[in-house]
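Sorry to interrupt, but I need a hand with the structure work. Go ahead and set the record down below:
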Amino acid sequence: MSMVRACFLVLAFWITPVHAERVYQQPDAFVAEAFGGRVPPPAVLWLTGDLKTEVRAILEHDYPALRLRYWGQGGRSVWVLEEIGKELPITVGIVVENNRIVQMRVLVFRESRGWEIESPAFIRQYLGATLKPAQGSKAPQLDRPIDGISGATLSVRALSKLSRMALLLHRHTPYSKL
């Protein structure tokens, strides 16, 4: 192998982004934990009509599914949602109770940077968050600011969008009225 080709291969490998999938918790385990091991049967929420429009306003694009599976019991609903960070999806588990986020966890992180969003210190900012009413044509916002992480701006944005989405979706379940 020539020296030039060897240098090219080393350089190509070195500058190629690495997308290591980090699985922090399996989605099924998160759902079981949210219900103390007694998981209710899943329910389905269809993203149609006004709900589809509201989700699009939050995400700034259509969600890639027409229906979402969730679990509910009492006044609690549990969501496993995905949103693109920079290039790849981030899988997040969110528990909503009494129209507030009571638990949130990054389940699977696939990006090469921005993994700091999985830290409990960062996630704590979302606990207790609710949605403020939408202002005019703007999508509903969280009732509090979320501090960003340098170098993880797109991952932070993805988590904030998913938290808003879960709170919105919860409002469209029978569990939001309990």
About this structure: The CA atoms of residues 86 and 154 lie 6 Å apart. Residues 6-17 have pLDDT under 50 and may be disordered.
